[in-house]
């Protein structure tokens, strides 16, 4: 019995005492950690979007999450630590209001509680996904050489396919190229540029460079 006590109870007694002291200090630090409150601004994530539907709201709000918990934990938290999510399953075309409550907040650390979520609701417009073929309109600028004027302008490709919410596509008739500066051009020249749609929710399908070929012709006597 004495040998057992020496081996299992009193063996390495100082290491055991130090371990107990460390455990007591950690318990004391956790038990006496003062509660605190912070606000985190996080993006709102959407999932389970129905097939062939798109969000047509141009501005998506961020959520401000006010949380309360041990100061030690809150000091280490960042905006990337939690998510505000909204489930779009079952939604259809049109306007929808979604509640944003603590139930929609994920990845919250242990011992941290949500005090407030702002906004408490958000409204989204959902529209059908669509595509459309539109003309590419070249934009040529610059001052031509004396005795020359702008002649033919060719665009390749002359049309592009754009994709996005149906209602947005209905308002777009053409894409416009970035300005092509043909200053001083004599004869014929080809410039590489990009097409601009102008709606942040509409994008080109398979975007590619646009080649604008500009020709100049001699002005006739008396022609400006």
Automatic annotation (TrEMBL):
The keyword Glycoprotein does not apply. It comes from Koribacter versatilis (strain Ellin345). The keyword Transmembrane applies. It comes from the Bacteria. This is YbbR-like protein. The chain crosses the membrane at residues 12-30. Gene3D superfamilies: 2.170.120.30, YbbR-like domain. Signal peptide: none annotated. Coiled coil: none annotated. The lineage of its organism: Bacteria, Pseudomonadati, Acidobacteriota, Terriglobia, Terriglobales. Keywords: Membrane, Transmembrane, Transmembrane helix.
């Amino acid at each position: 019995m004495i040998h057992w006590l020496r081996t299992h109870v009193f063996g390495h007694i100082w290491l055991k005492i130090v371990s107990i002291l460390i455990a007591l200090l950690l318990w004391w630090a956790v038990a006496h950690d003062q509660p605190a409150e912070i606000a985190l601004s996080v993006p709102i994530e959407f999932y389970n979007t129905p097939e062939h539907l798109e969000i047509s709201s141009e501005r998506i709000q961020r959520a401000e999450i006010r949380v309360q918990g041990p100061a030690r934990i809150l000091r280490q938290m960042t905006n990337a630590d939690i998510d505000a999510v909204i489930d779009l399953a079952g939604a259809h075309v049109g306007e929808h209001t979604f509640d944003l409550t603590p139930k929609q907040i994920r990845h919250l650390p242990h011992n941290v509680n949500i005090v407030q979520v702002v906004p408490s609701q958000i409204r989204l417009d959902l529209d059908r996904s669509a595509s459309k073929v539109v003309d590419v309109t070249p934009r040529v600028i610059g001052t031509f050489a004396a005795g020359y004027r702008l002649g033919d302008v060719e665009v390749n490709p002359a049309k592009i396919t754009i994709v996005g919410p149906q209602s947005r596509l209905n308002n777009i008739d053409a894409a416009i190229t970035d300005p092509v500066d043909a200053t001083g051009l004599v004869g014929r020249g080809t410039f590489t540029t990009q097409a601009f749609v102008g709606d942040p929710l509409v994008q080109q399908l398979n975007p590619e460079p646009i080649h604008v070929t500009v020709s100049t012709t001699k002005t006739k006597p008396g022609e400006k």
